TrEMBL record:
This is Uncharacterized protein. InterPro entries: DNA/RNA_pol_sf (IPR043502), DNA_pol_palm_dom_sf (IPR023211).
Length: 194
């Protein structure tokens, strides 16, 4: 009781262990179990993720080079020719079938998870209710996380801050040509890496 809310790491050099102790609302919690839980098997999730990525790659090949504009974890933005190439896989009733989410005549791609599809703008890290101050500059609320509260000087006070985010929008996954086509970086196997 009367202890400030906080987290502490206790290093036991003899047993080579680290224990996390959380003081919260007058209670003391010892955090244990930092390993995998009993029925956890990450290899299954890794396999499903890898399979999904390879399936997305297969769909991109079927769409055809130049007929897809953007891909994300579980979606492709394609043109009419690409849509025709996927025609046999599109079904709103078949389990695992592809579906058309939306169509548009206007698409602006600024980078990864940063695009305008018709009237909908998606920008990773920018809230939907953010205020655009200028191009690439947004003002929005920042809500503290639980961990952030514990690191605060006054953890009993929940303060929502207003912050300004400046987006660099620099693309670092390849070279962007003048017409917007991305040429991916290729590693030269003949170069010896020290």
């Amino acid at each position: 009781p009367n202890q400030p809310d906080r987290e502490e790491l206790v290093f036991n050099t003899g047993g080579r262990r680290v224990t996390k102790i959380r003081y919260l609302l007058g209670e003391i919690f010892i955090m244990t179990g930092h390993g995998e839980s009993f029925d956890s098997f990450p290899a299954i999730a890794a396999h499903v993720t890898a399979y999904a990525r390879m399936y997305l790659w297969q769909l991109m090949q079927q769409v055809g080079y130049g007929n897809y504009m953007y891909c994300d974890t579980d979606s492709l933005i394609i043109n009419e020719i690409g849509l025709d190439n996927l025609h046999d896989l599109i079904s709103s009733t078949t389990l695992g079938g592809l579906k058309i989410e939306k169509k548009t005549r206007s698409l602006i791609i600024r980078g990864l998870k940063d695009y305008t599809f018709g009237s909908k703008t998606v920008i990773k890290g920018i809230r939907k209710n953010a205020i655009e101050l200028s191009a690439g500059v947004y003002q929005q609320e920042l809500w503290p996380s639980f961990r952030g509260l514990l690191h605060n000087a006054e953890p009993e006070t929940y303060t929502v801050k207003t912050i300004v985010k400046h987006l660099s929008r620099e693309y670092t996954k390849g070279d962007v040509s003048i017409d917007g086509v991305v040429v991916p970086f290729v590693f030269d196997d003949s170069v010896a890496i020290p």
